[in-house]
Design brief:
117 residues, mainly alpha, two-stranded antiparallel ribbon, 9% strand
């Protein structure tokens, strides 16, 4: 499951967003983490110019993605289980296999609709 979590985390970076889970007290609450959209410019600079990505630009756009809540819960879990942020060590990550599967499918679906090569 860790590999699915880290893959979702990396692919969300390609989609243009990441979460900061350090202030989260309930890992299952998708409204708690800070969602950041600044990293996309750095990622874009490292991609082949023939690849076009219609990145997620803000929180309003993110919340239009089906299953966005499960995606955020998985990103919280990725930050805890994979990135091993010390300040998250006492929290249960709350990303069960069903949540991870839903999130992974949602991220892949979103990539297919937003990436053109």
């Amino acid at each position: 499951m860790d590999s699915a979590l880290i893959t979702c985390r990396a692919l969300c970076g390609l989609l243009g967003f990441e979460v900061d889970s350090r202030s989260v007290t309930d890992m299952g609450d998708p409204m708690q983490p800070t969602i950041k959209f600044e990293k996309f410019a750095a990622i874009r600079a490292n991609l082949d110019s023939r690849i076009a990505i219609n990145n997620v630009k803000d929180e309003k756009e993110l919340k239009q993605i089906p299953n966005w809540e499960q995606i955020i819960v998985c990103l919280n879990a990725a930050n805890k289980c994979v990135a091993h942020f010390d300040e998250l060590s006492d929290l249960e990550h709350r990303a069960d296999p069903n949540t991870v599967e839903i999130a992974a499918k949602a991220v892949l679906r979103e990539l297919r609709s937003r990436v053109k090569a």
